[in-house]
Specification:
By secondary structure, the protein is mostly beta strands. The chain has one helix and 15 strands. It has two domains: 99 residues, no CATH class; 75 residues, Elongation Factor Tu (Ef-tu), domain 3 (Beta Barrel). It has a six-stranded antiparallel barrel. The relative contact order is 0.23.
Amino acid sequence: MALITLPTKFSFGRVNKWGLDRAGNVLRSRYTGSRQAIVYPYAVWTFDGDLIDYPEPEASAIRAFITALEGVGNTFNLPVPGYNGPSGGYVGNGAVNTAAVVGANTLSVKNLPASTKVLIAGEYFMVNGELKMLTADVNTTAGGIGTFNFEPSLRAAAAVNAVVTLQAPYCTMAADDDDVGIFSISPPVRHSVKIKCSEAF
């Protein structure tokens, strides 16, 4: 798989779906009616959106990008829709303070502003190239260390000093369909295309 660069003017007019696709089973007792849920570790980011309509010559870069994906073959880095960085205005990044194992949902992060609420639940970050969402606010110590509680869990161990990216997070995606390169064209010669994709790793 090759990583295809996103065109500068790549933009969506509408996001129909963005979030985690999970897998689980629910069992219910035929006798008592009690419920038992089995949730598997599987969790991948999925996206479904409509690009804005492009006139020429902007459409040419979009056509080239879509075609270069070769259907489901290649990947691209998709910025998190509607999100660029921490809502509180923090413009830096962090680093892993204590190593974390595969499957962890908690991470100790250093190099943050001291004694403040630096992030809120629902914000995004990246570690090891994996996109995560915070499930709780992050309040830092006087030493600038904060605890990140997040989903989905780590797929790879996070080493001490690994970069924790808070600015412009993205997710590496691949198209879901072989026919991702199909366009619709409407007067006055505007190209439009829909993209459905899922996290690739």
